[in-house]
Amino acid sequence: MHDLTEGVERFRHDVFPAKAELFAELAATHRPRTLFISCSDARVVPELITQSEPGELFVVRTAGNLVPAHTPGPDGVAAGVEYAVAVLGVTDIVVCGHSACGAMTALAERHDLGSLPAVAGWLRHADAALARTAPAGGGPYPLDALVRENVRAQLANLATHPPVARALAARSLVLRGWVYDIPSGAVEEIERTGGTVALAA
Ligand SMILES: [Zn+2]
């Protein structure tokens, strides 16, 4: 197993010195422009695939890159979204799905999640995407289509959060939907909605 302590040592000695000036600036400054919402999947590394520096991405990661629609109760994802939009003033939110997503695969292949009640409950937030990709006559859902529809469904859920709705109305925020392909490294933009650009393919 990768030794995390060794990794920290390498970071301190080999990586940090080269960016010492940046980290000194970041010590008192937090102004990311993008809220990046991705799956918790270890193969999806937002800073790597966007080549972002420390301080540039405010990241929220959840299983299946799901964003529950707004409800009045406390919710960790909603808190992250609210802080990013209302306090940090991000101008972009990216919801990034990915190929071979375990959460989407479990839904597509109708896995029995009886022993994983937390996962089963959480994945209900993908119900809208499932409804849109339901295969005629049963059988497995088409995974690629489900991954894409799930990104679209989560963008719609995001828009129900009051700070997001306000920023969209003020044309100060753009919502973007991406799908990252693990074997090729390609990123496909499937959706872009917001005040500064028109709806685009
Ligand atoms: Zn995933």
Helix content: 25-40%
Characterize the overall form.
globular
| Total count of helical runs of at least 4 residues | 9
Structural class: alpha/beta
**Low-confidence segments:** 195-201
Mean pLDDT: 94
Main sheet summary: 5 strands, mixed
* Largest beta sheet: strand ordering: 2-1-3-4-5
Sketch the topology as an H/E string, one letter per element.
HHEHEHEHHHHHEE
Percent range for β-strand residues: 15-25%
What's the N-to-C terminus distance?
A: 42 Å
What ligand molecules are bound, each kind once? zinc ion
Our Rg estimate from Cα atoms comes to 18 Å
Number of strands: 5
Architecture blueprint of SSEs:
Blueprint: H1 4-15, H2 20-26, E1 34-39, H3 46-49, E2 57-62, H4 76-87, E3 92-98, H5 102-108, H6 117-122, H7 127-133, H8 143-158, H9 162-169, E4 174-180, E5 187-194
Parallel strand pairs: 1-2, 1-3, 3-4
Antiparallel strand pairs: 4-5
Helix pairs in contact: 4-9, 7-8
The structure holds zinc ion (ZN).
Residues 39, 41, 64, 98, 101-103 line the site of zinc ion.
